[in-house]
Amino acid sequence: MTQEVNEVELLRTALKSAGAGAGDARDSNKTLLVPALVDAIRNKRFFLVLDDVWSERAWDKLLKAPFSHGAAGSRVLLTTLHDGVARGMQAAYPLHHVDKLNPEDAWSLLKRQVASSEMEELEIDDTLKDIGMKIIDKCDGLPLAVKVMGGLLRRRGRRRADWEQVLQDFIRSVPPGELNDCFLHYSLLPNNVVFFDNMVIGMWISEGFLHGDTNDLEKLGQDCYKELIYRNLIEPDAGYADERVSSMHDVVRSFAQNLARDEALVVSFRDEITKGALKSQKFLRLSVETNHDEFGWKIIQGQKSLRTLIVIGELKINPGDSLINFSNLRTLHIQDTNYTASLVESLHQLKHLRYIFVYCSDIARLLRNIGKLKLLQHLEIMSENYVKLPDCIVKLGQLRFLNIPVTSIPRRFSRLTNLRNLFMFPAQADGDWCSLQELGPLTQLQELSLKNLENVPATSLATKARLGEKSHLSYLRLECSSRLGEDGLVEDKNGVSEEEQRRTEEVLDELTPPLCLENIDIVGYFGQRLPRWMTSRAASAYERLTIVTVEDLACCTQLPDSLCQLPCLNVFQVARAPVIKRVGPEFVTMQPSSSQRRHGHAFPRLKAMNLLGMVEWEEWEWDQQLNNVPAMPALEELMQLKSVGSFASLVKLELSNTPDLERITFVPRLQKLVIAHCPTMMGVPALQRLHLEDYDMEQLPRYLQQDVSPRHLQLDCSLELLTSIALGKSSPEWSKLSHVQHVKAYADQGDIERKWHVFYTRDPYSFETNIDNSSSSS
């Protein structure tokens, strides 16, 4: 549980854990969710765990009443940093206080943070333990504090003087100057909202935290962002590639907010103390998070010294409310708020404004006077509506970041030569003019997203974009309007002509990226062949490329070759390629001239390969000679393949809707396998965990009895098959399950997911089911 509890999401989570129907758990009405939760737990024993509770409010006002309907013997376990919360929830005494780390355990944790091998740990023991133990003493046995210090020491190195300096500066824990400013500012950002790194860095730039050459501010910001990660002050979200999204642990966040308390305030509509501070103290930075409109705009209008205003959630805004009181504002981030016309009309009066992020339906009105904000550097508007970008946009000479849903851009857009990040840029033509030629002079671009590329009438116009000359470009998205329907197949009514295919192929051939590119997305491309720079030896020149994503290949018949030679490629994903039937040996064939040939590895650093929506895929030809060439030695995640083999480092594998897949071979490090709807599977390797999902199978697969002995087996199947399994030792399926240490099998009933179950443990023996008349048979 976070400091700011989303009541609807909390009720949904409780409902899902209580086994309620999927329909109930998706409801967004609190008044319907509460009685549904009562019905789900009525007269049932439960064990409820509430972790990291910051306030008793969620229990007293939301959960206590519905959970009072459970059966006798139910228990609630809560963890909290505050004894007062436990007492307020009437926890049973004595309270259990978690012991702090003893000095030796804390020293062991610190060493693991700093050293990369056992040999280095021994070296640190011999030379730095005396200073290290003094640092440990300052951490007071708190694991998070030890990890933070470990991250700092890892960056400083292993010189004695560096460790002594860290010990002297411990009170601040981060160095003074720009990194400290960035750290404190990050604590204003709510953890339950996605902030991409370029948004965060844009805020830092607008506040003036980053000092140096104005051409390098984004790089300086990226360095600070990475530094905070290295020091364990923020934690990357594994769901996003390249550490683009991070969060700050609640304990670290509270510490940072305390350090910044004289200048910054994070306020919640529930927190009367912080509401009171708004009336009695003036702040430079204010972050407001609320999930209903009880918190009014009027409350914050007295903060006339604000430089940063962040508002997340619904805020009560009345006619006449405006932004004119915030004349010093540099950063304005308003998300999920009812952004009214009065605020839009007053926006252009904020002459010092450098950063704008808003959700707004009336974009045209907001942009009408945008040219008056001469210092604006970051402009991002989220909306379902698309508009024509006004001519006055070219007056924003300081603009570095632009992300707006637009249908067209004005001529002379090329005057915005300070742009570093440009998204949703539309390709459009008017006579001999094309919007792509406005990109030519924008030599500082680092991230670029182009759309509607099918509108480019001639390759000569695409050449004028001069993409290959943009020596700072690290991310590129090339997008055409998709020709695929919801079923993943080409829509007949939007059939692709040969002329359209030829022109689109030639246009993308001309949009050759620079060799410094690190991340590329190709979306909606409907040529029969891939761009020439993605095939053969040309692709192998992109040695910095780490992520390649291809989506909605309507007509392309092959995957890009030569990617196997890229030394830094970590992620490769194909989503919806309905006409690819075969993947040939060229996909993993090394070119003789490749520098990677010396290493003998195809895809040497690839960690994740996802091949999704390839509905016609029939064959992956793995040439016999390739058996002697190690391929994908670092692969950890593989999704949806027709045939699987020769992946020496694969740890997790998910297979679904692959009816022709028969066998999985040579995956020696595989630990977890998820199989969904693969009816012809004949054999799987030895592994720790196996998850089978198939509601049509009438009996368990034979390979469970023959050569597979997972320690953990999870099964999602039909009620008929589960009823047979529930017979226990008299079941015809018993021989396929009895040797497995832990089995969990489930079946649905209507909208109620996993209503029925069978739980089995081999040693010590235990068999449990809620299917009638099964216990006597087992």
What would you say about this model in short?
This protein is α/β, with parallel strands linked by helices and 778 residues long.
Characterize the largest beta sheet: strand count, sense, and whether it forms a barrel: 22 strands, mixed
Radius of gyration: 29 Å
Percent range for β-strand residues: 15-25%
Quaternary organisation of the protein chains: single chain
| Envelope shape | globular
Poorly predicted runs: 171-175, 594-598, 774-778
* CA-CA gap between termini: 40 Å
Which percent range fits the helix content?
Answer: 25-40%
DSSP, total strands: 34
> What is the overall number of helices?
23
Structural class: alpha/beta
The whole-number mean of residue pLDDT values reads 83
What secondary-structure arrangement, pairings included, does this model have?
Elements: H1 7-17, H2 22-25, H3 30-41, E1 47-50, H4 57-67, E2 75-78, H5 83-88, H6 103-114, H7 118-139, H8 143-156, H9 160-168, H10 178-186, H11 197-207, H12 217-230, E3 235-236, E4 246-247, H13 250-259, E5 264-268, H14 272-280, E6 285-289, H15 297-300, E7 308-312, E8 331-335, H16 341-346, E9 355-359, H17 363-367, E10 378-382, E11 387-388, E12 401-403, E13 406-408, E14 421-426, E15 429-430, E16 433-434, E17 447-451, H18 459-463, E18 475-479, H19 498-510, E19 519-523, H20 536-539, E20 547-551, E21 571-575, E22 582-583, E23 608-612, E24 619-620, E25 637-639, E26 644-645, E27 652-656, E28 664-665, E29 672-676, E30 689-693, H21 703-706, E31 712-716, H22 719-725, H23 734-737, E32 742-749, E33 752-761, E34 766-769
Helix pairs in contact: 1-3, 3-4, 6-7, 6-8, 7-9, 10-12, 10-13, 11-12
GO molecular function: ADP binding
Domain NB-ARC: 1-118
Domain Disease resistance protein winged helix: 190-255
